[in-house]
């Protein structure tokens, strides 16, 4: 049976989806973009600041499910420009221990919602 995970500490969905769904001991998050949940504004100052907001949003969703980034087993990163990969990777990597980092794919896409530069989703296991 699935359980819907919702927190006010991450942006509310802008469509017919939920922030995350828990099935058994597995958590599947929706992709997060750089909305500040307190103001509703997009944080697009620079790619590092944008990526940090995305990761903080994911952190809040994980926390609502009583998990941390240590529980993440898979992540998917979608970026609009592969030239930003190293800057995104630097911020993303700061949230994980290199020895226990999850599996991951990073894909350049033509366009992302709200014309953001990065969107990240994760799968986590308790």
UniProtKB/TrEMBL annotation:
Record InterPro entries: RidA, RutC-like_sf, YjgF/YER057c/UK114
One GO MF term: deaminase activity
Domain of life, source organism: Bacteria
CC per GO annotation: cytosol
Pfam families per record: Ribonuc_L-PSP
Family indicated by similarity: Belongs to the RutC family.
NCBIfam families: Rid family detoxifying hydrolase
PANTHER family: 2-IMINOBUTANOATE/2-IMINOPROPANOATE DEAMINASE RIDA (PTHR11803), PROTEIN HMF1-RELATED (PTHR11803:SF58)
Name listed for the protein in its UniProt record: RidA family protein
Organism: Aureibaculum marinum
């Amino acid at each position: 049976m699935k359980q819907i995970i919702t927190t006010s500490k991450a942006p509310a969905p802008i469509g017919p989806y939920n922030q995350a769904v828990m099935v058994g001991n597995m958590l599947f998050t929706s992709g997060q973009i750089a909305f500040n949940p307190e103001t509703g504004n997009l944080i697009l100052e620079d790619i590092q600041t944008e990526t940090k907001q995305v990761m903080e949003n994911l952190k809040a969703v994980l926390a609502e499910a009583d998990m941390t980034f240590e529980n993440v087993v898979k992540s998917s990163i979608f970026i609009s420009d592969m030239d930003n990969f190293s800057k995104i990777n630097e911020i993303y990597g700061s949230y994980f221990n290199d020895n226990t980092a999850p599996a991951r794919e990073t894909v350049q896409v033509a366009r992302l919602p709200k014309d953001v530069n990065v969107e990240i989703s994760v799968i986590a296991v308790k």
